[in-house]
Amino acid sequence: MEAWYMDDSDEDQREPHRLRPNQPVSLEQLKQLGVFHWKLNADNYETDPELELIRKEQGYSYMDIISIHRDTLANYEEKLRMFFEEHLHMDDEIRYILDGQAYFDVRDKDERWIRIAMAKGDLITLPAGIYHRFTLDRTNYTKAMRLFVGEPVWKAYNRPADDFDIRQKYVASLQEPGA
After folding, report:
1. H-state helical runs in the chain
2. Most buried of 71, 95, 108, 162 (most Cβ within 10 A)?
3. 66 has which bridge partners?
4. Which ranges in 39-149 belong to alpha helices (H)?
């Protein structure tokens, strides 16, 4: 996994959008935003004891697998546009890349976009209330495990959603000492 601050170009969303010079973002900076990452062996995901431990510790009781590619996802173009709309969720978003590559973009405390490049073996959690969006990279393919605590909730709330309690709670968490 690699992360960096994005440029403001209107170029294809699948491009890296790095600033020049590049401004990398560390795992520690992401943690301060509530974003967590693990690197796992995706070739072993069905029997991986490390993944099982994470699922048990975090309470991720539900999972499914989605393949995002023109040939495998119904309404592919529409779904990509929807995923790339800036939004938040009432619950954490947990994704584990089993194959391919993709980007998650998140807002920092100052509303700047950070691009997180995900590849095979990367597991990420985005906290409830964080504004984010998702897109493929130039390979136009990823296969991801979606994990949830309890039954899956697929509802996204497009920005503006600042009046939601979960958004206010998230923003308040950024003001706490150590954040």
Report:
1. 27-32, 49-58, 76-84, 165-175
2. 95
3. 144
4. 49-58, 76-84
Q: Please name the amino acid found at residue 6.
A: M
> What is the tens place of the pLDDT at every residue in 30-73?
999 999 999 999 999 999 999 999 999 999 999 999 999 999 99
Amino acid at position 156, single letter: A
Share of the chain above pLDDT 90, in %: 96
Rounded to an integer, what is the distance from CA 36 to the centroid of its chain? 10
What is the pLDDT, as a whole number, of residue 168?
97
What residues have CB less than 8 Å from 81, skipping those under 6 apart? none
User: pTM for the whole thing?
Assistant: 0.96
Whether the bond into 49 is cis, omega within 30 of 0: no
Q: pLDDT-derived band of residue 178, with 50, 70 and 90 as boundaries?
A: low
- Give the chain's count of helices (H) and strands (E): 4, 10
